[in-house]
Design a protein that fits this description.
alpha+beta; single chain; Serine Threonine Protein Phosphatase 5, Tetratricopeptide repeat; 5-stranded mixed beta sheet; 51% helix; 12 helices; 4-stranded antiparallel beta sheet
Length: 362
C-alpha cells in the first residue's frame, strides 16, 4: 500500500516542483542592463521569449526597452501581442487556477495590476503619437477609457485620463477630451489643470503654437528628479506636472488586492493541509514530505512591470510656431540640475500642437 501511494502522489509532487521553478535569468539581466542604460544589451537579453505564464510580462518589458530605444514598430508589436494574450486570459485557465490553489499565485499567467494593463494601452498610444499616427492613438485612447471603467475598486491615475483626453483632442473629439481632462483634474487638483482644455497656463496667443511633451522620470543614484523644465532657444517655456507616481499606484493596488489574497490564502492553506493529511493516511513519511513541500512554496506573487517609469508627467506650454528642438532639464526638489536632454527635430506637429516624448533613463 505504501509503495502504491508513493507512485500515486510523487508524480504530482514532482510536477509542482517543476511548475514552481520558472527561470527568470534573461529577464533579470535585461532589467539590469535597462537600468544601466545599456538598451541594446537589454533588448538582446530578451531576443527569445518564453511561451509560458510569464510571456505577457516579458512582452511588457521588451516593449518598454524598445520604446525607450525609439524602436516604435517592434515595441508596438510586443505590446499588441501582450494585449491579445491578456484579453485571452479574461477567460482564465482552469488548470492553472487549480494549481495556484495548491502551490501559489505565481503559477497563474501574469496579467499585472489593473493600472499595468491600462498602461499597456497608454504606452501604445505614446508609440502612435511618436509616429504621428493620430487616429491609431485615439483607438488606444478608447481602450484606455474601457480599462478605466473596469477598475473594480483599483486606483485610477491622472496620466491615463490625460493622455486619453489629449489623443481625443488631436482628433477633434473635444467633448470626450474635456470629459477625460475633467477626470484627470479630479485626481490631481493641486496642479492647476484646466479641466476643459488640458492646459496649465493661459491659452497661447494667435501667433503661438503649443508644445505637449510627456516626460518620464527614473531613479538616478537613488534619487528621483522632482520636476523637469522645458527650454527653447535658451528661454524657459514651463515646467512639468506629475500625473503618475508608480510607488503610490503599486501601494494602492496592493492594498486593494490584500483582501482578495487573504481569502484565497486561507482556502489554499486548508487545501494543502487536506492533501498532507491524505498523504499521511497512506504513508506517514510521505505525508510529512508533501506538507513540507507544499508550504515551502507558499509565497506571494510579486511579479511586476519593472521597466515602467517611476513617475510620469506632462509639460504643456506655449512655444514658437517654428520649434527645431528643445531641452528638458531634470531638477531635484532643491532645484539642482540632475540631467539635461536635448530633443531635436523634426518634431511631429498636428495643427498648432507639437508633440514630444522624453524619458530620464540612465
Amino acid at each position: 500500500m505504501a509503495k502504491a501511494s508513493h507512485r500515486t502522489i510523487l508524480p504530482y509532487v514532482a510536477a509542482l516542483l517543476l511548475c514552481a521553478g520558472c527561470a527568470t535569468v534573461p529577464l533579470n539581466e535585461a532589467r539590469r542592463n535597462f537600468n544601466a542604460g545599456a538598451l541594446t544589451e537589454a533588448d538582446r537579453n530578451l531576443a527569445s521569449l518564453p511561451h509560458d505564464g510569464d510571456r505577457i510580462l516579458y512582452l511588457m518589458e521588451r516593449g518598454m526597452i524598445r520604446h525607450v530605444r525609439c524602436d516604435y514598430t517592434n515595441s508596438t508589436a510586443d505590446w499588441l501581442e501582450a494585449v491579445k494574450l491578456e484579453t485571452e486570459l479574461e477567460t482564465h485557465s482552469v488548470t492553472k487556477a487549480g494549481a495556484s490553489m495548491v502551490v501559489n499565485d505565481s503559477l497563474l499567467s501574469f496579467r499585472g495590476y489593473p493600472y499595468e494593463r491600462t498602461l499597456l494601452h497608454v504606452f501604445l498610444a505614446k508609440n502612435y503619437l511618436a509616429c504621428g499616427l493620430w487616429e491609431d492613438a485615439a483607438v488606444e485612447a478608447r481602450s484606455v477609457v474601457r480599462r478605466l471603467q473596469q477598475l473594480d475598486g483599483f486606483p485610477a491615475d491622472a496620466l491615463s485620463h490625460y493622455i486619453t483626453a489629449f489623443c481625443f483632442e488631436l482628433c477633434g473629439d473635444y467633448s470626450n477630451a474635456a470629459r477625460q481632462y475633467r477626470e484627470a483634474a479630479k485626481l490631481v487638483p493641486q496642479i492647476g489643470l484646466d479641466e476643459k482644455t488640458g492646459r496649465f497656463t493661459p491659452p497661447p496667443q494667435p501667433n503661438e503654437s503649443e508644445l505637449v511633451c510627456f516626460v518620464d522620470f527614473d531613479f538616478r543614484n537613488g534619487m528621483m528628479p522632482e520636476f523637469a523644465e522645458i527650454y527653447a532657444g535658451g528661454q524657459l517655456l514651463g515646467i512639468s506636472r506629475t500625473l503618475f507616481t508608480r510607488s503610490a499606484m503599486e501601494a494602492a493596488s496592493a492594498q486593494r488586492m490584500a483582501a482578495r489574497r487573504t481569502a484565497k490564502l486561507l482556502t489554499r492553506i486548508a487545501l494543502k493541509e487536506s492533501l498532507a493529511l491524505y498523504a499521511s493516511s497512506k504513508d506517514n513519511d510521505l505525508g510529512g514530505l508533501v506538507w513540507l513541500l507544499l508550504f515551502s512554496m507558499e509565497k506571494e506573487d510579486v511579479r511586476r512591470w519593472e521597466t515602467l517609469p517611476g513617475k510620469m508627467a506632462v509639460v504643456r506650454v506655449a512655444c514658437p510656431d517654428t520649434l527645431p528642438g528643445f531641452d528638458v532639464v531634470f531638477k531635484s526638489h532643491s532645484g539642482a540640475v540632475l540631467k539635461r536632454i536635448t530633443i531635436q527635430g523634426p518634431l511631429l506637429k498636428k495643427g498648432r500642437i507639437f508633440v514630444g516624448l522624453c524619458r530620464d533613463n540612465p
